[in-house]
Amino acid sequence: MRVNISTRSLAGLARRLRVAALEPHTEAAATRGAQELGQMIAGETGVRPQISGPARRPIVRVRDEAVLARVRGQEGVEGDPVLDRIRLDFERRKRGRRA
After folding, report:
1. Does residue 8 carry a pLDDT above 80?
2. Which has the closest alpha carbon to 60: 72, 47, 50?
3. Predicted confidence (pLDDT) at residue 60 exceeds the cutoff of 60
4. Interval 15-37: pLDDT, tens
5. Distances (CA, A) of 67 to 3, 8, 17, 80
6. Burial of 30 (0-12, 13-18, 19+ CB in 10 A)
7. What are the residues whose beta carbons fall under 8 Å from the beta carbon of 36, sequence distance 6 or more?
8. Is 49:20 a contact under the CB 8 Å cutoff?
9. What's 51's DSSP letter?
10. Residue 52, class by beta-carbon neighbours within 10 Å (0-12 exposed, 13-18 middle, 19+ buried)?
11. Of 20, 33, 41, 61, which has the fewest CB atoms closer than 10 Å, so is most exposed?
């Protein structure tokens, strides 16, 4: 009796499962995360950020000049790391949900 096991069929099955099952959930989770981060930024700065990019990897951008000037600071005035605080808080919350 000869038995031939091909890993190509397993790789194809894994690829089909990823496309059918995982990618929609990954995209939904990334979109929810971007919206949550956007709400956190809007709550702290008073400015709604722009969310763009593909659904599986959205980009959250703050384009308001007043907020950016506040973050960057000026000569002799240190910048306010408000966006860094928000991002770190977001990461802590995300880690807390996984645990």
Report:
1. no
2. 50
3. yes
4. 777 777 778 888 899 999 999 99
5. 66, 52, 43, 9
6. middle
7. 90
8. no
9. E
10. exposed
11. 20
pLDDT band at 3 (very low <50, low <70, confident <90, very high): low
Phi, then psi, of 91 in degrees rounded to 5: -65, -40
Could you give the CA distance from residue 85 to residue 70 in angstroms, rounded to a whole number? 14
Q: Which amino acid is at 66?
A: A
Whole-model pTM? 0.71
- How long a stretch of residues is the chain? 99
Helices (H), strands (E): how many in the chain? 4, 2
Place of tokens 């190509």: 8
Q: Return the structure tokens found at 45.
A: 């700065």
φ/ψ of residue 50, rounded to 5? -95, 130
